[in-house]
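Box 3.1 A note on notation
Throughout this textbook, protein chains are presented in two layers. The first layer is the amino acid sequence; the second is a token string describing backbone geometry. Keep the layers aligned when reading.
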Amino acid sequence: MNDPALRRVLAAAVPFAVRLRRNFRGVDVREGLLIKGPSGWGEFAPFDDYSHQAAARWLDCSLEAAFGSWPVSRRSAVHVNAIVPAVSPSVAALLTRQAINDHGCSTIKVKVGGALADDEARVASVRDALDTTLGRGFGRIRIDANGAWDVSTAKTSLRRLAEYGLEYVEQPCREVEQIIEVRGSCPVPIAVDETLRTSDDAEALARQGDLISRMADFAIVKPAPLGGIEACLRVIEALPVPVVVSSSLDTSVGLAVAVNLAGILGLEIACGLGTGALFEEDLVSSPEPPVDGMLTVRRVAPDLTALLKARDHVSDERAMWWRQRLTAAWFAGSEQRWTEIIGASA
């Protein structure tokens, strides 16, 4: 391999695997590579079904964290929401009370998109726990369908779920035309996520202001799938709607990128950065939980003990697979941007 920059990245990459507390959208174990550079640590962990081109944007984000630089944050800490996965109503209520009492979170994101009766029972349980613990109307609920609904199901579900007081619904349908149709009669504000982050050119899509305005009231911005903080700032500048920064089921190392982006933007709205609670294991021995509903803006480095443990969970076969995936992502999009920067930092 006659590519010194890529060789340096591969030499600095450490495979990891950490367990989640419960299955989250089909994921029980989070795998990836940590990359050490002069600026800090980056996390490369695109999901297995992502294309090489999509994985290249994740690699851009990790290389920016390891070898690049970020603007100065305007905040020392940012507000975060807690997450309630697709669990039973009793578990949903328990998770909501824990988020409030242990971490000071008053905004809860609830996963929906299954049977309406199950979704409604889950949302109702979260609303009851919020109102009982905080007082009626003091807690916020946002729901996330991850594009699971068709137009008819979205309209029916949102009419029913709107009764519980929703801040917004995230990605009700997969297709742009479907979302526009739903928004025309939707009693709940709409936020787009997958529409933006799975686009081949999110910045170009963001510049279609009329289309975005017809489709959404908010845009969800995730640094890893969009290519890092610099890329996100370009997308955000083009967007005609407010943004909510969210993470991508990252460990504490990767989560820090999204927390920094929210701090750079100076956002007051609660951001989707409460994913740390989903992890049974992490790459730091003592992950920082939200305090008073907020996370500190900082870079995060792995603890050696935790990283070695996470590395030992990765088989030789999977470690090779991840290195091959990084190499494919490099040549699919990252090489041109990073070869000179990494070479200059040697």
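The domain at 77-296 is CATH 3.20.20.120 (TIM Barrel). The chain has two domains: 4-69+305-344, 77-296.
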